[in-house]
UniProtKB/TrEMBL annotation:
Record-annotated G-protein coupled receptors family 1 profile domain positions: 46-297
InterPro entries (UniProt xref): GPCR_Rhodpsn, GPCR_Rhodpsn_7TM, TAAR
One GO CC term on file: plasma membrane
Higher taxonomy: Eukaryota, Metazoa, Chordata, Craniata, Vertebrata
Name under which the protein is recorded: G-protein coupled receptors family 1 profile domain-containing protein
Superkingdom to which the source organism belongs: Eukaryota
Keyword vocabulary terms for this entry: Cell membrane, G-protein coupled receptor, Membrane, Receptor, Transducer, Transmembrane, Transmembrane helix
Residues passing through the membrane, by range: 30-54, 66-90, 102-124, 145-165, 185-211, 248-268, 280-300
Topology term for the membrane: Multi-pass membrane protein
A Pfam family recorded for this sequence: 7tm_1
PROSITE patterns, per database record: G_PROTEIN_RECEP_F1_1, G_PROTEIN_RECEP_F1_2
Amino acid sequence: METLDKAELCFPQLLNTSCRKQTRPQSESMFIYVLLSFISLLTVVLNLLVIVSISHFRQLHTPTNLLLLSLAVSDFLVGFLVMPFQILITEPCWFLGDLVCVLYYVLNIIIVYASLLHMVLISVDRYVAICDPLRYSTKITQNRVRICVLLSWISCVFYSFLFLSDNLKQPGRYNSCYGQCVINVIGAADIVINFILPISTIVILYLRVFVVAVSQARAMRSHITAVKLQSSVTVTVKKSELKAARTLGVVVAVYIVCYCPYYCVSLSGSDLTIGSSTNIFLVFVAYSNSCLNPVIYTFFYPWFRKSVKLIVTLQILQPQSCDTNVMKETAE
């Protein structure tokens, strides 16, 4: 009986303080590991393609694409760092120590919150492009976008250390036994700062974009008899901006759909046990957003499909390949 009890402990040498292993069927464990590992690998590969595409081809160095590049970096880190550690947390026991546990959550908050801030920045970019198109090029410059991106990452680091300050001062203080990876967060503050405020901002901005886009479409139809050349140029520019807004609107909508289940369950007051099947499912539904973004680009951005083709066929290794016109066949 004593041998059996020791086998059920995370640390058999610590009989009185060790956590007990929460066993699950082997088939369920295998399915979870394979599925989550596949999502993690796919997230890394797809976002790496986005990073290489926008970084390599000079034609793609636009303010909007710089935001997409930084978003791809955060999504890449989700697949490369956050997801693998999340797979470890699904294990019955945590063997990497209390400090590594807290540092993982610090890294988790930095990366995930960075993705959310980039969604807000993308919404602001589309808001200015549609609602104030004449001053877009002067308001949204590459230098300003770089500064905003840098500030967003700095704020995420600051917020993460501030949010987990108690856990960093004494790692493991909230563990009830050895073999746990538990942190203490203020649930209400987390939901308000990480979900309600930014999502409300995004929705309000895109509602405004939608209203202005509809009014512009009606104005273009009412002036269809205007000077043909001038009208055609105006319509082309506005169609391009509207298409970009629609595509990035899909990105934002998918983000909301992925993260809503987790925060809705949190708002309902339900207690999610770390490592439980429900918790694993909701967390990875949220993290799968990082994998879906490049898939959206594939469907909506022809330049991304062309860039991927050049990368996969190693044509980017040729001299002057960075000057390739990846927009030539896709310009409207």
